[in-house]
Design brief:
Blueprint: H1 9-20, H2 36-48, H3 63-96, E1 101-105, H4 107-120, E2 124-129, H5 141-148, E3 152-158, H6 159-162, H7 167-176, E4 180-184, E5 191-194, E6 198-202, E7 211-215, H8 219-234, E8 236-237, H9 258-267, H10 273-280, H11 284-298, H12 303-312
Parallel strand pairs: 2-3, 3-4
Antiparallel strand pairs: 1-7, 2-5, 4-8, 5-6, 6-7
Helix pairs in contact: 1-2, 9-11, 9-12, 10-11, 11-12
Length: 316
């Protein structure tokens, strides 16, 4: 349990034993199958970590206190490691002068590099999301873990991305965890930006992601960040039902039903009536009737326009 926090197996086993034997003397902890020196080393490790209370005997601190102490120690080690990286990077650049653009080849390597970059995020992740994808089924574990660590996520989704099976539910899950999502009819390319220090852009053609560029600080990275900011400003917020639009600042009218708000939000993604009905658990005819009524109310010439106008006028 505590090994992931830097405690040895022997020290962890002794700590668990001491939870049931508070105040035990060191000599009483030595059994026939235990090396006295190993027991002494484990006691020393526990004392150094602050997991034993002061006193002649061995009394373990409470488990919740132990976890916090060990976690704090690991965080301090990480802080020191990151601080030590800066001078190493300076030497690396002076000696090796690496190319600011790295080409990654092979779908497995692209996927691995993507995971590495996401796990490196400390402040924010920006992204353009559009097909094709390295893997058909998206694993949200990394993104949710980053959101749980207060990494800010902003994503612009191309409309075709949200029509793929399961993709809309993924966006709902990420938004519930804190992601800010917006929509555009299309995007120029897929993009990942991590802490504005690294960017990843697939360069493959066709339906497979076989190659990608990883961009470090340089004028190209600055251009990619500016491109994201520009598209973000133009994109339509993927509004939650009943939430004020970030573009309009108004709340939905009282006579707009919950179902109407949800249908409007999904219209902006370009989903068909059938997909909207399936996602909301409504009948197809009910959705079709609501879509026609909403288009008439908004004076929209088509479905997607109705969704855009709804977002811009604060109906979402």
């Amino acid at each position: 349990m505590f090994e992931t926090l830097g405690l040895s197996t022997a020290a962890e086993q002794l700590y668990l034993e001491l939870l049931e034997r508070p105040g035990a003397r060191p000599d009483a902890l030595t059994r026939s199958d235990r090396d006295p020196d190993a027991v002494g080393a484990a006691i020393g490790e526990l004392r150094e970590a602050g997991l034993l209370l002061p006193g002649p005997g061995c009394t373990a601190v409470a488990p919740d206190v132990a976890v916090e102490l060990l976690a704090h120690r690991q965080e301090e080690l990480l802080r020191r490691a990151r601080a030590a990286v800066e001078p190493l990077l300076l030497r690396y650049r002076q000696v090796g002068s690496p190319d600011p653009v790295e080409l990654v080849a092979g779908s497995e390597q692209v996927s691995l590099r993507y995971e590495q970059l996401v796990r490196c995020a400390r402040k924010e992740i920006l992204g353009f999301d559009k097909p094709p994808y390295v893997v058909p089924v998206r694993d949200l574990g990394m993104e949710l873990a980053s959101l749980g660590q207060r990494v800010r996520y902003r994503a612009v989704y191309a409309r075709p991305a949200l029509t793929m099976p399961g993709r809309l539910s993924d966006v709902d899950t990420l938004k519930s965890a804190g992601e800010q999502a917006r929509i555009l009819p299309d995007l120029p390319f897929k993009l990942l930006i991590v802490d504005r220090r690294w960017a990843m852009v697939p360069v493959s053609e066709g339906t497979e992601v076989e190659r990608a560029m990883v961009v470090r600080p340089c004028s190209l990275l600055d251009a990619l960040v500016a491109t994201f900011d520009s598209y973000w400003q133009r994109a339509v917020p993927f509004g939650d039902a009943g939430r004020a639009s970030s573009t309009g600042g108004q709340t939905a009218p009282d006579d707009l039903s919950e179902a109407d708000r949800q249908v409007l939000a999904l219209l902006a993604t370009g989903l068909t009536d059938e997909r909207i009905a399936a996602h909301l658990g409504l009948g197809l005819r009910t959705v079709q009737r609501r879509v026609r009524g909403l288009m008439d109310r908004l004076g929209a010439g088509n479905r997607f326009q109705a969704g855009l106008q709804a977002a811009r006028t604060g109906l979402l």
